[in-house]
Amino acid sequence: MKRTYLLIIVIILAFSINVNAQNTKVYSTSSGEMIFSFADLNMAGNEKGNVMRFSPAFNFQNLVNFDFSDRFGIYSGINIRNVGFIYENSEYKIKKKYRTYNAGIPIGIKLGNLNKMFVFGGYELEMPFNYKEKTFINESKEDKFNVWFSDRVHLWNSAVFGGIHFPYGTTITFKYYLTNFFNKDFEEVIDGQVTKPFKDFDVNVFYISVSFQMFRNSNFSPDDYFDK
Length: 228
Description:
By secondary structure, this protein is mainly β. It is built from two helices and 14 strands. The N and C termini lie far apart (about 40 Å).
């Protein structure tokens, strides 16, 4: 897996070296992100019960773009994201909501007409810095807690993503987390017994998100578009 990540970086650098630096346009962009998340899950043998989670708030993307031509560019940056999933056991009337706030560093490639419509994709390394868990029984909230830098999840998460950027700034992204949401080795003491509550939980979160002005230069104006 590490070789795959290294290969991606090498390919990006190889493209960069072969492009005339004098034609490179460098600029920063920022946007919010509305996330519709799901999960490929197996909760102790139960593969059903996933409920869509909508998280429109506190998702920030801050990117530095390197456009080497009108057809090719790369980007990176620092992102803050509210990521999680909802699990519902209808038999026992239990609903669990899990989420983390992640700080991420993406490495992405853009291909197409960068002034209008293009595709993009890449890899992102994220660090969950806040974990939150809610428990509902018969639709009544029974428990809630959050922990900073919790051992319930991994220190680093790996994800791959791809998407399409439409004219006028709308972006749709699909993202899949390669890392299990939970740390299976996490231990806690319950009634004097050491247990591993997540040892039988396999959860890979994925989502579709919508953003606006994710790749638009802050100096962009309508005249720039229609003059093309």
